[in-house]
Amino acid sequence: MLFNSYTFALFFTLVVGLYFVLPHRYRWMFLLAASYFYYMYWDPRYGILILSTTVVVYATAIMMNGKPVRTKKLFVALSILVNLGILGIFKYFNFVNNSIKDLFTMLGAEYTVPAMSLIMPIGISFYTFQALSYTIDVYRGKREPERNFGIFALYVSFFPVLLAGPIERSTTLLPQFYREVEYDYNRFTDGLKLIAWGLFQKLVIADRIGMYMAPIHNNPEAFTGLPVLLGIYLYPIQVFCDFAGYTDVAIGTAMVLGFKLMENFRRPFISLSLAEMWRRWHISLITWFRDYVYIPMGGNRVPKWRHYINIMVVFTLSGLWHGAQWTFVIWGSLNGLFMIISLITRKAREWLRETVFGGLGKISAAVFFASAALLLAGAFLSGQAGIPAGAGVRSVAAIAGMLLLLLGVLKTRGAVLDRFLLVSKRSWMKFWTFNLFAFAGAFFGARSVKDGWYLVTHFIGTNIRQVLMVIDLVQFTLMILLVTMLMVIHYIQETRGSIREMVRAKPLWVRWTLYFLLCSSIALLGYRGSQQFIYFRF
Question: What predicted TM-score, i.e. pTM, was given to this entire model?
Fold first, then answer.
């Protein structure tokens, strides 16, 4: 029952209708039944696993309440071990077993432990982490244990967040199940708008990029140069639109029912640094690792070498959390390494940026014009005289001359140059932040370490014809326009605030025209071959 399916649309309509008809005291029971039905719709056996997690976490929290610290440590350790054990067996056993088998084979030794034939429950990483955050919060005294088993079971299984988050905290979500919700038109319609926007991101943008990415991921060695580079750049946007699209549908679904979920993405591609990128990307997971792993390990309040180890541990674990493959471990480790390098080089990079961009601001217009004239004249005359300088060198000189000419013109217009240099500096920082994130992401989407390595080592070149072999010109143009539109929307949201609030302030005919265009785009441009959400496998 995918969020982007007619089956879910019917399920959601029935749930919302019955939810607001029922008296408040019965609503949590109905939502619990609906959530278990939703999860067991995929496979009835899933119900046994999530119920096991629920019982263990509920019971250990009750038993640690009011007990001495030593007893509380025993029960919190039991809860963590049992639940991580369930997660480890179903998600990681075969990965570890196969890795050990490969190691023994390399050493020429015999290894006879067979692989296990197990179901892989969708969403197990999400609801396990959500349940464990409750266990740890009770242990830390941040909340009292929940006495109502049904309400707690609803917290673990709440269907909007069950399969792919956000990973909610018990301190914010559990109390909402006790609050009586009245129908509110603005909240209801805001939720529907968010659902529509989430479906647009998934069906129209993410799945269209998926059309381009599928051949590259399935057979990367058939491509080299520009098709690979475009794939490296487009894949993070596909993952974002796919996962943020799911999150928006989840948040919108909960909003219609009267529940508020946490923000999970905050326009990550406008980040000026990797640290900022990770404050804006998959926020519920990153803050989970921050609060329950990074800070308990000492965070940044330890010697530098320990701080760097803490960063590597957190990012490597976050990679492993995503999947039982070495590609995810490498992806997480690369991001940790990039973070450490960025911390080590931060002051040097800040000095270099201020020297270059600040220094340009202090140069006079006359110097810009004179330098531009020399470069442009040199490029032109060397070509006319047949001086043996490569065409590439002359092109670089010509481009540099035009840029210096532009800087000279801007300098004559007072503070315009300062604003241009500020924008240029910020754009430079965004460019490198996105590049580091995207190149690490090549391993995230690759089927194997070999494929990921191929992608990051074969992106230089042109091969424009290969691009149109992957996707036709119309779909390629539409894909680029949609990505550009998304970036413009993110810029508007970052600089001017909520677009939803802007639309609400418009006249009725403008609002409904925009709603019609959004829904029509989903119906007409939504990729017909859309698949399940990428994060369902985690």
Answer: 0.91
